[in-house]
Backbone:
Protein backbone atom coordinates (compact mmCIF):
# COMPACT_ATOMS: atom_id res chain seq x y z
CA UNK A 1 0.00 0.00 0.00
CA UNK A 2 1.53 3.31 -0.99
CA UNK A 3 2.10 5.60 1.90
CA UNK A 4 2.70 9.25 1.27
CA UNK A 5 6.30 10.25 1.54
CA UNK A 6 5.02 13.58 2.73
CA UNK A 7 5.15 12.21 6.23
CA UNK A 8 8.91 12.18 5.87
CA UNK A 9 8.92 15.84 5.03
CA UNK A 10 6.65 16.86 7.86
CA UNK A 11 9.60 17.43 10.12
CA UNK A 12 11.00 20.01 7.77
CA UNK A 13 7.87 22.07 8.23
CA UNK A 14 9.38 24.05 11.04
CA UNK A 15 7.46 27.22 11.45
CA UNK A 16 9.15 30.21 9.96
CA UNK A 17 7.09 32.01 12.55
CA UNK A 18 7.09 35.75 12.07
CA UNK A 19 3.45 36.40 11.37
CA UNK A 20 3.80 39.87 12.75
CA UNK A 21 3.27 43.03 10.72
CA UNK A 22 6.08 45.32 9.71
CA UNK A 23 7.14 47.36 12.77
CA UNK A 24 7.77 50.47 10.69
CA UNK A 25 5.06 51.43 8.22
CA UNK A 26 5.74 52.17 4.58
CA UNK A 27 4.44 55.69 4.16
CA UNK A 28 3.78 58.28 1.50
CA UNK A 29 1.64 61.21 0.48
CA UNK A 30 -0.96 60.99 -2.29
CA UNK A 31 -0.43 62.91 -5.54
CA UNK A 32 -2.68 65.76 -4.47
CA UNK A 33 -0.95 65.90 -1.11
CA UNK A 34 -4.25 65.80 0.72
CA UNK A 35 -3.74 62.42 2.29
CA UNK A 36 -0.98 60.66 4.16
CA UNK A 37 -0.96 56.88 3.78
CA UNK A 38 0.66 54.32 6.06
CA UNK A 39 0.90 50.68 5.05
CA UNK A 40 1.87 47.71 7.22
CA UNK A 41 2.36 44.41 5.42
CA UNK A 42 1.79 41.14 7.34
CA UNK A 43 3.83 39.03 7.54
CA UNK A 44 6.98 41.07 7.41
CA UNK A 45 9.29 40.74 5.56
CA UNK A 46 6.94 39.99 2.69
CA UNK A 47 7.44 36.34 1.68
CA UNK A 48 8.11 35.54 -1.98
CA UNK A 49 5.17 33.95 -3.80
CA UNK A 50 2.99 33.58 -0.71
CA UNK A 51 -0.15 35.51 0.19
CA UNK A 52 0.16 38.48 2.52
CA UNK A 53 -2.10 41.22 3.82
CA UNK A 54 -1.87 44.94 4.28
CA UNK A 55 -3.22 47.26 6.88
CA UNK A 56 -3.69 50.68 5.34
CA UNK A 57 -4.26 53.80 7.40
CA UNK A 58 -5.19 57.19 6.02
CA UNK A 59 -4.34 60.51 7.68
CA UNK A 60 -5.24 64.07 6.79
CA UNK A 61 -2.37 65.55 4.77
CA UNK A 62 -2.56 68.85 6.64
CA UNK A 63 -3.54 68.11 10.23
CA UNK A 64 -1.99 64.62 10.36
CA UNK A 65 -5.12 63.32 12.08
CA UNK A 66 -6.69 59.98 11.21
CA UNK A 67 -8.95 60.55 8.23
CA UNK A 68 -12.66 60.11 8.94
CA UNK A 69 -13.97 60.65 5.42
CA UNK A 70 -15.85 57.98 3.50
CA UNK A 71 -13.49 56.80 0.78
CA UNK A 72 -13.06 53.76 -1.44
CA UNK A 73 -9.67 52.15 -1.72
CA UNK A 74 -8.27 50.24 -4.66
CA UNK A 75 -5.01 48.39 -4.09
CA UNK A 76 -2.81 46.84 -6.76
CA UNK A 77 0.87 46.31 -7.45
CA UNK A 78 3.08 46.63 -10.49
CA UNK A 79 6.62 45.65 -11.51
CA UNK A 80 7.87 48.56 -13.60
CA UNK A 81 11.00 46.80 -14.87
CA UNK A 82 9.10 43.67 -15.90
CA UNK A 83 6.10 45.41 -17.43
CA UNK A 84 3.57 43.36 -15.51
CA UNK A 85 1.65 43.59 -12.30
CA UNK A 86 0.24 41.45 -9.58
CA UNK A 87 -1.67 38.41 -10.82
CA UNK A 88 -4.45 38.67 -8.28
CA UNK A 89 -7.13 41.15 -7.51
CA UNK A 90 -7.25 42.30 -3.94
CA UNK A 91 -10.14 42.68 -1.53
CA UNK A 92 -10.34 45.78 0.61
CA UNK A 93 -12.39 45.90 3.78
CA UNK A 94 -12.87 48.86 6.04
CA UNK A 95 -11.96 48.02 9.63
CA UNK A 96 -12.90 51.43 11.00
CA UNK A 97 -12.96 54.91 9.49
CA UNK A 98 -9.52 55.57 8.06
CA UNK A 99 -8.30 51.99 8.49
CA UNK A 100 -8.52 49.24 5.88
CA UNK A 101 -7.51 45.60 5.64
CA UNK A 102 -6.33 44.39 2.22
CA UNK A 103 -6.24 40.67 1.44
CA UNK A 104 -5.19 38.70 -1.63
CA UNK A 105 -1.78 40.31 -2.07
CA UNK A 106 0.89 38.05 -3.57
CA UNK A 107 4.25 38.97 -5.10
CA UNK A 108 5.13 36.04 -7.34
CA UNK A 109 8.52 37.37 -8.46
CA UNK A 110 11.57 38.95 -6.91
CA UNK A 111 12.45 42.51 -7.83
CA UNK A 112 11.12 46.02 -7.56
CA UNK A 113 7.42 46.26 -6.91
CA UNK A 114 5.31 49.36 -6.83
CA UNK A 115 2.35 49.25 -4.48
CA UNK A 116 -0.41 51.31 -6.08
CA UNK A 117 -3.14 52.70 -3.91
CA UNK A 118 -6.02 54.67 -5.37
CA UNK A 119 -8.39 56.56 -3.14
CA UNK A 120 -11.78 57.53 -4.53
CA UNK A 121 -14.13 59.87 -2.76
CA UNK A 122 -17.52 61.27 -3.56
CA UNK A 123 -17.57 65.05 -3.25
CA UNK A 124 -20.51 67.40 -3.43
CA UNK A 125 -20.08 70.01 -6.10
CA UNK A 126 -22.97 72.46 -5.98
CA UNK A 127 -26.06 70.36 -6.51
CA UNK A 128 -24.34 67.28 -7.93
CA UNK A 129 -21.73 64.81 -6.82
CA UNK A 130 -18.50 63.88 -8.47
CA UNK A 131 -15.94 61.17 -7.76
CA UNK A 132 -12.49 62.48 -7.01
CA UNK A 133 -9.54 60.13 -7.38
CA UNK A 134 -6.23 60.48 -5.69
CA UNK A 135 -3.38 58.00 -5.72
CA UNK A 136 0.08 57.09 -4.62
CA UNK A 137 2.74 54.53 -5.47
CA UNK A 138 5.04 53.07 -2.84
CA UNK A 139 8.20 51.21 -3.89
CA UNK A 140 8.79 47.83 -2.27
CA UNK A 141 11.92 45.81 -3.00
CA UNK A 142 11.45 42.08 -2.75
CA UNK B 1 28.83 37.35 -18.46
CA UNK B 2 30.87 38.52 -15.54
CA UNK B 3 30.13 37.45 -12.01
CA UNK B 4 30.94 39.48 -9.01
CA UNK B 5 31.69 37.25 -6.08
CA UNK B 6 30.63 38.60 -2.79
CA UNK B 7 32.01 37.00 0.33
CA UNK B 8 29.46 35.91 2.82
CA UNK B 9 28.61 36.93 6.27
CA UNK B 10 29.11 33.33 7.24
CA UNK B 11 28.11 33.78 10.81
CA UNK B 12 24.57 34.55 9.75
CA UNK B 13 24.04 31.50 7.61
CA UNK B 14 26.14 28.92 9.39
CA UNK B 15 24.89 26.52 11.93
CA UNK B 16 27.32 25.74 14.71
CA UNK B 17 28.42 22.53 13.03
CA UNK B 18 30.18 24.23 10.18
CA UNK B 19 32.44 26.61 11.97
CA UNK B 20 35.99 26.00 10.94
CA UNK B 21 34.83 23.94 7.96
CA UNK B 22 36.82 25.59 5.24
CA UNK B 23 35.55 23.37 2.39
CA UNK B 24 32.03 24.53 3.20
CA UNK B 25 33.14 28.14 3.35
CA UNK B 26 34.74 27.83 -0.04
CA UNK B 27 31.58 26.43 -1.60
CA UNK B 28 29.39 29.07 0.00
CA UNK B 29 31.71 31.82 -1.13
CA UNK B 30 30.79 30.93 -4.70
CA UNK B 31 27.37 32.48 -4.13
CA UNK B 32 26.14 35.88 -3.03
CA UNK B 33 23.94 36.05 0.01
CA UNK B 34 20.83 36.58 -2.10
CA UNK B 35 21.75 33.65 -4.33
CA UNK B 36 22.17 31.47 -1.25
CA UNK B 37 18.80 32.55 0.10
CA UNK B 38 17.20 31.64 -3.24
CA UNK B 39 18.91 28.27 -3.24
CA UNK B 40 17.83 27.49 0.32
CA UNK B 41 14.23 28.25 -0.69
CA UNK B 42 14.27 25.21 -3.00
CA UNK B 43 14.28 22.82 -0.02
CA UNK B 44 11.19 20.69 -0.51
CA UNK B 45 8.65 20.21 2.27
CA UNK B 46 5.29 18.44 2.17
CA UNK B 47 2.76 20.00 -0.22
CA UNK B 48 0.08 22.20 1.29
CA UNK B 49 -3.10 20.28 2.05
CA UNK B 50 -5.91 20.66 -0.47
CA UNK B 51 -9.02 21.44 1.59
CA UNK B 52 -11.26 20.73 -1.41
CA UNK B 53 -10.27 17.02 -1.23
CA UNK B 54 -11.16 15.51 2.14
CA UNK B 55 -9.78 12.10 1.15
CA UNK B 56 -6.23 12.94 0.17
CA UNK B 57 -4.51 11.26 3.14
CA UNK B 58 -6.82 8.22 3.16
CA UNK B 59 -4.91 4.97 2.51
CA UNK B 60 -7.83 3.27 0.74
CA UNK B 61 -8.33 6.34 -1.44
CA UNK B 62 -4.63 6.22 -2.36
CA UNK B 63 -4.94 2.53 -3.22
CA UNK B 64 -8.06 3.13 -5.31
CA UNK B 65 -6.37 6.08 -7.00
CA UNK B 66 -3.34 4.03 -7.89
CA UNK B 67 -5.51 1.34 -9.48
CA UNK B 68 -7.47 3.92 -11.47
CA UNK B 69 -4.29 5.68 -12.60
CA UNK B 70 -3.09 2.46 -14.25
CA UNK B 71 -6.52 1.25 -15.44
CA UNK B 72 -7.02 1.26 -19.21
CA UNK B 73 -10.69 0.43 -18.78
CA UNK B 74 -11.36 4.09 -18.01
CA UNK B 75 -10.77 4.83 -21.68
CA UNK B 76 -13.10 4.70 -24.65
CA UNK B 77 -11.02 2.08 -26.49
CA UNK B 78 -9.85 0.13 -23.43
CA UNK B 79 -6.22 0.86 -24.19
CA UNK B 80 -5.29 4.16 -22.57
CA UNK B 81 -4.63 4.81 -18.88
CA UNK B 82 -3.14 7.86 -17.23
CA UNK B 83 0.14 5.93 -17.19
CA UNK B 84 0.11 5.54 -20.99
CA UNK B 85 1.19 9.17 -21.11
CA UNK B 86 2.49 9.64 -17.56
CA UNK B 87 4.87 6.68 -17.48
CA UNK B 88 6.70 6.40 -14.15
CA UNK B 89 9.72 4.92 -15.95
CA UNK B 90 10.03 8.06 -18.10
CA UNK B 91 9.79 10.70 -15.41
CA UNK B 92 5.98 10.41 -15.45
CA UNK B 93 5.78 11.64 -19.01
CA UNK B 94 5.96 9.95 -22.44
CA UNK B 95 9.01 11.21 -24.34
CA UNK B 96 6.81 12.46 -27.16
CA UNK B 97 6.60 15.99 -28.48
CA UNK B 98 2.79 15.90 -28.29
CA UNK B 99 0.85 13.33 -26.31
CA UNK B 100 -0.98 10.50 -28.06
CA UNK B 101 -3.97 8.89 -26.42
CA UNK B 102 -7.03 7.61 -28.21
CA UNK B 103 -5.95 10.20 -30.81
CA UNK B 104 -3.11 12.67 -31.20
CA UNK B 105 -3.43 15.60 -28.80
CA UNK B 106 -2.27 19.19 -29.08
CA UNK B 107 0.02 19.42 -26.05
CA UNK B 108 3.19 18.02 -24.57
CA UNK B 109 2.71 15.77 -21.50
CA UNK B 110 4.01 17.42 -18.33
CA UNK B 111 5.79 15.36 -15.67
CA UNK B 112 4.01 14.53 -12.39
CA UNK B 113 6.93 14.51 -9.94
CA UNK B 114 5.84 16.48 -6.86
CA UNK B 115 2.74 17.49 -8.82
CA UNK B 116 0.68 18.27 -5.70
CA UNK B 117 2.84 21.33 -5.11
CA UNK B 118 1.16 23.12 -8.00
CA UNK B 119 -1.23 25.97 -7.59
CA UNK B 120 -2.84 25.48 -11.01
CA UNK B 121 -2.91 22.46 -13.31
CA UNK B 122 -2.41 22.11 -17.07
CA UNK B 123 -0.15 24.36 -19.14
CA UNK B 124 -2.88 26.99 -19.14
CA UNK B 125 -3.96 26.36 -15.53
CA UNK B 126 -7.54 25.45 -16.40
CA UNK B 127 -7.88 23.34 -13.24
CA UNK B 128 -7.37 24.50 -9.66
CA UNK B 129 -7.07 21.13 -7.95
CA UNK B 130 -5.42 17.83 -8.66
CA UNK B 131 -8.75 16.00 -8.44
CA UNK B 132 -10.62 18.23 -10.86
CA UNK B 133 -7.65 18.00 -13.23
CA UNK B 134 -7.87 14.19 -13.24
CA UNK B 135 -11.44 14.25 -14.55
CA UNK B 136 -10.55 16.00 -17.77
CA UNK B 137 -8.22 13.45 -19.47
CA UNK B 138 -10.72 10.66 -18.78
CA UNK B 139 -13.34 12.44 -20.87
CA UNK B 140 -11.11 14.21 -23.38
CA UNK B 141 -11.91 12.63 -26.77
CA UNK B 142 -8.22 12.59 -27.76
CA UNK B 143 -6.78 11.45 -24.41
CA UNK B 144 -8.77 8.61 -22.84
CA UNK B 145 -12.05 9.19 -24.66
CA UNK B 146 -14.04 7.78 -21.76
CA UNK B 147 -16.94 9.26 -19.86
CA UNK B 148 -18.25 9.77 -16.36
CA UNK B 149 -21.01 7.19 -16.84
CA UNK B 150 -18.43 4.65 -18.02
CA UNK B 151 -16.37 5.46 -14.90
CA UNK B 152 -19.38 4.86 -12.67
CA UNK B 153 -20.09 1.46 -14.21
CA UNK B 154 -16.45 0.41 -13.99
CA UNK B 155 -16.28 1.34 -10.31
CA UNK B 156 -19.47 -0.56 -9.57
CA UNK B 157 -18.74 -3.68 -11.62
CA UNK B 158 -15.14 -4.38 -10.63
CA UNK B 159 -15.45 -5.97 -7.16
CA UNK B 160 -12.04 -4.69 -5.95
CA UNK B 161 -12.71 -1.13 -7.06
CA UNK B 162 -16.26 -1.24 -5.67
CA UNK B 163 -15.01 -2.49 -2.32
CA UNK B 164 -12.39 0.24 -2.03
CA UNK B 165 -14.79 2.92 -3.24
CA UNK B 166 -17.36 1.82 -0.67
CA UNK B 167 -14.84 2.03 2.15
CA UNK B 168 -13.80 5.55 1.25
CA UNK B 169 -16.87 7.25 -0.16
CA UNK B 170 -19.81 5.04 0.81
CA UNK B 171 -21.94 2.67 -1.21
CA UNK B 172 -22.31 3.03 -4.95
CA UNK B 173 -25.87 2.98 -6.31
CA UNK B 174 -27.51 -0.46 -6.35
CA UNK B 175 -27.78 -2.43 -9.57
CA UNK B 176 -31.49 -1.55 -10.10
CA UNK B 177 -30.60 2.12 -9.93
CA UNK B 178 -27.55 1.74 -12.16
CA UNK B 179 -29.55 -0.06 -14.81
CA UNK B 180 -31.26 3.23 -15.55
CA UNK B 181 -27.90 4.79 -16.41
CA UNK B 182 -26.61 4.48 -19.99
CA UNK B 183 -23.19 2.75 -20.27
CA UNK B 184 -21.59 5.92 -21.61
CA UNK B 185 -22.36 9.58 -21.35
CA UNK B 186 -21.01 13.00 -20.44
CA UNK B 187 -22.01 16.58 -21.15
CA UNK B 188 -20.91 17.69 -24.63
CA UNK B 189 -22.94 20.93 -24.90
CA UNK B 190 -21.11 22.05 -28.04
CA UNK B 191 -22.32 18.91 -29.89
CA UNK B 192 -26.01 18.42 -29.08
CA UNK B 193 -26.23 15.30 -31.28
CA UNK B 194 -23.18 13.58 -29.78
CA UNK B 195 -24.11 10.13 -28.42
CA UNK B 196 -22.50 11.01 -25.05
CA UNK B 197 -24.51 14.22 -24.85
CA UNK B 198 -27.80 12.50 -25.77
CA UNK B 199 -27.20 9.90 -23.06
CA UNK B 200 -26.33 12.60 -20.55
CA UNK B 201 -29.38 14.68 -21.42
CA UNK B 202 -31.60 11.64 -20.84
CA UNK B 203 -30.76 11.76 -17.10
CA UNK B 204 -32.67 13.83 -14.60
CA UNK B 205 -30.84 16.64 -12.88
CA UNK B 206 -30.69 14.59 -9.71
CA UNK B 207 -29.20 11.62 -11.55
CA UNK B 208 -26.66 13.88 -13.20
CA UNK B 209 -25.62 15.17 -9.82
CA UNK B 210 -25.21 11.67 -8.46
CA UNK B 211 -23.03 10.70 -11.43
CA UNK B 212 -20.98 13.87 -11.04
CA UNK B 213 -20.43 13.17 -7.37
CA UNK B 214 -19.16 9.65 -8.08
CA UNK B 215 -16.98 10.96 -10.90
CA UNK B 216 -15.52 13.66 -8.65
CA UNK B 217 -14.79 10.99 -6.03
CA UNK B 218 -12.85 9.00 -8.62
CA UNK B 219 -10.85 12.18 -9.23
CA UNK B 220 -10.24 12.62 -5.52
CA UNK B 221 -8.89 9.07 -5.24
CA UNK B 222 -6.58 9.60 -8.21
CA UNK B 223 -5.40 12.87 -6.67
CA UNK B 224 -4.74 11.12 -3.35
CA UNK B 225 -2.43 8.76 -5.24
CA UNK B 226 -0.74 11.50 -7.26
CA UNK B 227 0.00 13.35 -4.06
CA UNK B 228 2.33 10.50 -3.17
CA UNK B 229 4.45 11.08 -6.28
CA UNK B 230 6.97 13.09 -4.39
CA UNK B 231 10.68 13.09 -3.87
CA UNK B 232 13.15 15.43 -2.31
CA UNK B 233 16.27 13.41 -2.77
CA UNK B 234 17.98 14.76 -5.84
CA UNK B 235 21.72 15.43 -5.83
CA UNK B 236 20.90 19.12 -5.69
CA UNK B 237 18.69 18.63 -2.61
CA UNK B 238 21.64 16.97 -0.88
CA UNK B 239 23.83 19.88 -1.87
CA UNK B 240 21.29 22.32 -0.41
CA UNK B 241 21.29 20.30 2.81
CA UNK B 242 25.05 20.58 2.77
CA UNK B 243 24.87 24.34 2.45
CA UNK B 244 22.74 24.38 5.57
CA UNK B 245 24.73 21.93 7.67
CA UNK B 246 28.24 22.20 6.27
CA UNK B 247 28.37 18.43 5.68
CA UNK B 248 31.25 17.86 3.26
CA UNK B 249 29.74 14.77 1.59
CA UNK B 250 26.49 16.58 0.90
CA UNK B 251 28.33 19.58 -0.47
CA UNK B 252 30.15 17.26 -2.85
CA UNK B 253 26.85 15.81 -4.14
CA UNK B 254 26.99 17.98 -7.26
CA UNK B 255 29.97 18.75 -9.50
CA UNK B 256 31.86 22.04 -9.56
CA UNK B 257 30.34 22.61 -13.00
CA UNK B 258 26.80 22.16 -11.65
CA UNK B 259 27.62 24.54 -8.79
CA UNK B 260 28.68 27.19 -11.27
CA UNK B 261 25.45 26.50 -13.14
CA UNK B 262 23.48 27.02 -9.93
CA UNK B 263 25.27 30.32 -9.38
CA UNK B 264 24.20 31.43 -12.84
CA UNK B 265 20.65 30.11 -12.48
CA UNK B 266 20.05 31.84 -9.15
CA UNK B 267 22.14 34.84 -10.10
CA UNK B 268 22.99 36.65 -13.28
CA UNK B 269 21.09 34.47 -15.73
CA UNK B 270 17.95 35.40 -13.75
CA UNK B 271 16.27 32.04 -14.30
CA UNK B 272 15.17 32.20 -10.65
CA UNK B 273 12.82 35.08 -11.41
CA UNK B 274 10.32 32.53 -12.71
CA UNK B 275 11.91 29.25 -11.58
CA UNK B 276 11.88 29.91 -7.83
CA UNK B 277 11.00 27.95 -4.71
CA UNK B 278 10.55 24.25 -4.03
CA UNK B 279 9.53 23.28 -7.55
CA UNK B 280 11.91 25.71 -9.23
CA UNK B 281 8.72 27.26 -10.51
CA UNK B 282 6.74 30.27 -9.39
CA UNK B 283 3.69 28.13 -10.21
CA UNK B 284 2.39 30.95 -12.41
CA UNK B 285 2.33 31.80 -16.12
CA UNK B 286 4.69 33.56 -18.51
CA UNK B 287 5.34 33.99 -22.20
CA UNK B 288 8.91 32.82 -22.83
CA UNK B 289 8.44 33.13 -26.59
CA UNK B 290 8.78 29.44 -27.43
CA UNK B 291 9.20 29.21 -31.22
CA UNK B 292 6.00 28.23 -32.98
CA UNK B 293 4.95 27.73 -36.54
CA UNK B 294 1.24 28.32 -36.19
CA UNK B 295 -1.07 30.96 -34.82
CA UNK B 296 -0.91 32.83 -31.58
CA UNK B 297 -1.91 30.54 -28.72
CA UNK B 298 -4.36 31.82 -26.10
CA UNK B 299 -2.65 30.00 -23.18
CA UNK B 300 -3.60 31.33 -19.78
CA UNK B 301 -6.23 33.68 -21.25
CA UNK B 302 -8.44 30.72 -22.20
CA UNK B 303 -7.29 28.75 -19.16
CA UNK B 304 -8.84 31.26 -16.77
CA UNK B 305 -12.15 31.28 -18.63
CA UNK B 306 -12.29 27.47 -18.60
CA UNK B 307 -11.40 27.31 -14.91
CA UNK B 308 -14.10 29.75 -13.89
CA UNK B 309 -16.68 27.82 -15.94
CA UNK B 310 -15.65 24.39 -14.58
CA UNK B 311 -18.38 22.93 -12.33
CA UNK B 312 -15.64 20.90 -10.59
CA UNK B 313 -13.59 23.94 -9.56
CA UNK B 314 -12.79 24.69 -5.93
CA UNK B 315 -15.82 26.94 -5.51
CA UNK B 316 -18.24 24.35 -6.88
CA UNK B 317 -20.62 21.96 -5.12
CA UNK B 318 -18.23 18.99 -5.42
CA UNK B 319 -15.52 20.71 -3.38
CA UNK B 320 -15.18 19.35 0.16
CA UNK B 321 -14.61 22.75 1.69
CA UNK B 322 -17.03 25.44 0.68
CA UNK B 323 -15.62 28.06 3.00
CA UNK B 324 -14.13 31.04 1.26
CA UNK B 325 -10.71 30.32 2.68
CA UNK B 326 -10.59 27.06 0.71
CA UNK B 327 -10.76 28.93 -2.55
CA UNK B 328 -8.56 31.91 -1.97
CA UNK B 329 -6.77 31.48 -5.28
CA UNK B 330 -9.99 31.35 -7.24
CA UNK B 331 -11.49 34.29 -5.41
CA UNK B 332 -8.56 36.55 -6.21
CA UNK B 333 -8.09 35.28 -9.75
CA UNK B 334 -7.80 38.00 -12.32
CA UNK B 335 -7.77 37.90 -16.10
CA UNK B 336 -5.80 40.51 -18.02
CA UNK B 337 -4.55 41.03 -21.58
CA UNK B 338 -1.12 39.82 -20.42
CA UNK B 339 -2.49 36.31 -20.04
CA UNK B 340 -2.64 35.75 -23.79
CA UNK B 341 0.20 33.43 -24.83
CA UNK B 342 1.26 32.65 -21.26
CA UNK B 343 1.96 29.09 -20.11
CA UNK B 344 2.73 27.65 -16.71
CA UNK B 345 6.33 27.69 -15.53
CA UNK B 346 7.02 23.97 -15.30
CA UNK B 347 8.77 22.42 -12.34
CA UNK B 348 12.41 21.70 -13.16
CA UNK B 349 12.67 18.79 -10.75
CA UNK B 350 13.60 15.66 -12.71
CA UNK B 351 13.84 17.75 -15.88
CA UNK B 352 16.67 15.65 -17.35
CA UNK B 353 14.20 12.76 -17.75
CA UNK B 354 11.33 14.64 -19.31
CA UNK B 355 12.46 15.70 -22.79
CA UNK B 356 11.18 17.14 -25.04
CA UNK B 357 10.50 20.46 -23.42
CA UNK B 358 7.93 23.29 -23.25
CA UNK B 359 4.14 23.13 -23.65
CA UNK B 360 4.56 22.30 -27.32
CA UNK B 361 7.57 20.02 -26.92
CA UNK B 362 9.40 22.48 -29.16
CA UNK B 363 12.90 21.72 -27.82
CA UNK B 364 14.32 18.22 -27.78
CA UNK B 365 17.23 18.75 -25.38
CA UNK B 366 18.17 20.86 -22.38
CA UNK B 367 20.98 22.29 -24.49
CA UNK B 368 18.37 23.64 -26.92
CA UNK B 369 16.39 25.18 -24.09
CA UNK B 370 19.47 26.93 -22.73
CA UNK B 371 20.39 28.10 -26.23
CA UNK B 372 16.92 29.64 -26.55
CA UNK B 373 17.34 31.64 -23.35
CA UNK B 374 20.87 32.59 -24.38
CA UNK B 375 20.13 34.06 -27.80
CA UNK B 376 16.33 34.22 -28.18
CA UNK B 377 17.04 33.56 -31.85
CA UNK B 378 13.96 32.29 -33.62
CA UNK B 379 11.88 33.23 -30.58
CA UNK B 380 8.19 33.79 -31.27
CA UNK B 381 7.13 37.44 -31.27
CA UNK B 382 5.44 38.64 -28.10
CA UNK B 383 1.84 37.52 -28.12
CA UNK B 384 0.64 40.86 -26.89
CA UNK B 385 2.09 44.35 -27.02
CA UNK B 386 1.57 44.38 -23.26
CA UNK B 387 3.30 41.05 -22.62
CA UNK B 388 5.73 41.16 -19.73
CA UNK B 389 9.34 41.94 -20.64
CA UNK B 390 11.53 39.77 -18.47
CA UNK B 391 13.62 37.75 -20.90
CA UNK B 392 16.72 39.32 -22.39
CA UNK B 393 19.32 37.52 -24.52
CA UNK B 394 21.91 36.29 -22.02
CA UNK B 395 24.74 35.73 -24.53
CA UNK B 396 26.16 32.86 -22.52
CA UNK B 397 29.52 31.40 -23.53
CA UNK B 398 29.97 27.66 -24.12
CA UNK B 399 31.21 26.98 -20.59
CA UNK B 400 28.26 28.80 -19.03
CA UNK B 401 25.78 26.85 -21.15
CA UNK B 402 27.38 23.59 -20.04
CA UNK B 403 27.23 24.75 -16.43
CA UNK B 404 23.52 25.54 -16.63
CA UNK B 405 22.80 22.14 -18.17
CA UNK B 406 24.93 20.41 -15.50
CA UNK B 407 22.91 22.20 -12.85
CA UNK B 408 19.60 21.16 -14.46
CA UNK B 409 20.83 17.54 -14.54
CA UNK B 410 21.60 17.68 -10.82
CA UNK B 411 17.83 17.98 -10.25
CA UNK B 412 17.27 14.39 -11.40
CA UNK B 413 15.07 12.45 -8.99
CA UNK B 414 15.56 8.80 -8.07
CA UNK B 415 13.28 6.32 -9.87
CA UNK B 416 9.82 6.05 -8.30
CA UNK B 417 9.30 3.67 -5.38
CA UNK B 418 7.55 0.36 -6.17
CA UNK B 419 4.52 1.55 -4.19
CA UNK B 420 3.92 4.09 -6.95
CA UNK B 421 4.10 1.61 -9.80
CA UNK B 422 1.24 -0.32 -11.36
CA UNK B 423 -0.49 -2.73 -9.00
CA UNK B 424 -0.38 -6.34 -10.22
CA UNK B 425 -4.04 -6.24 -11.23
CA UNK B 426 -3.45 -3.38 -13.64
CA UNK B 427 -0.47 -5.15 -15.18
CA UNK B 428 -2.68 -8.16 -15.85
CA UNK B 429 -5.33 -5.96 -17.45
CA UNK B 430 -2.81 -4.33 -19.73
CA UNK B 431 -1.52 -7.72 -20.87
CA UNK B 432 -5.10 -8.70 -21.68
CA UNK B 433 -5.68 -5.41 -23.49
CA UNK B 434 -2.53 -5.81 -25.57
CA UNK B 435 -3.55 -9.35 -26.39
CA UNK B 436 -6.81 -8.14 -27.82
CA UNK B 437 -5.12 -5.86 -30.32
Residues:
Amino acid sequence: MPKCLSVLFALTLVACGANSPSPVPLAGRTKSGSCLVEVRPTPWPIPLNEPFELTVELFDGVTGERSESQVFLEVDAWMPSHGHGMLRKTRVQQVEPGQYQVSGMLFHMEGEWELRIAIAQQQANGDFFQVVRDELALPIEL
Amino acid sequence: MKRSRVLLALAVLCTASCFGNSAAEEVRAQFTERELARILRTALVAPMPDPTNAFEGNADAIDLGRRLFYDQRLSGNGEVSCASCHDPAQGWTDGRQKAVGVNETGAHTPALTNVAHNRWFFWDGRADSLWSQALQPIEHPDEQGGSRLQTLHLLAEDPDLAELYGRVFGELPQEEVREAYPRNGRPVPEEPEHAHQLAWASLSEQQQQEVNLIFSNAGKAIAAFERCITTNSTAFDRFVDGLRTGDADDLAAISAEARSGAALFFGEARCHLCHSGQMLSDLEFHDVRVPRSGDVEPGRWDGIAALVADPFNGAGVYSDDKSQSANVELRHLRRTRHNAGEFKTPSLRDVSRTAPYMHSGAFSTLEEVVEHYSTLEGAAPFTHEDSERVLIPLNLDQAEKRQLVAFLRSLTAPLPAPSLLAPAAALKQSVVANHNL
In short: The interface with chain A takes residues 38, 41, 43-47, 57, 59, 62-63, 66, 225, 227-228, 230-232, 272-274, 276-277, 282-285, 328, 331-334, 336, 338, 386-390, 417, 419-420 of chain B (CB under 8 Å).
